[in-house]
Amino acid sequence: MQHDIARARWWLAYPVALLLLAILDAFLGAWHPLPERLPDQFSPAYLHLVLRDAAKTPPATLVLGDSVLWGYKIAPQQTAVAALQQELPDAHLINLAYEGGSTPNSSVLLDEALASGIRVRGVVVNLNVKEFNANDSAYRTLHPS
What we know:
The protein is mainly alpha-helical and 145 residues long. The chain has helices at 2-31, 44-54, 67-70, 80-87, 103-115, and strands at residues 60-64, 93-95, 120-125. The longest helix is centred in the N-terminal third of the chain and has 30 residues, at 2-31.
């Protein structure tokens, strides 16, 4: 008899645990602000979460590029994007530049951002001149546009 009661409680524990996890996920999703910049290592799933959150914001200017705009070896508050945001406080900037970014990756990232529903007011792109050198491996992967 006591064994049956314990088994019945387990069946109740599963839906309660799932409900609590769903509530926690909703709370953290609503609370989690957009990052100042992407982390130096991130997954496609994380990027999609950032893009999903960015789609809920007012029209924005997207910043795409490599480590120069990302802010290699400096704090997020010291990046060029942070300085630009300080100079233009009414502008809504979303820093999607990342360490190791490239022109082809920026093209793909812009396509992903547009597909995610982000309302784009403008785009700032950092072009690395070395990628336009025929001897650089990135040269062969540039998007024709």
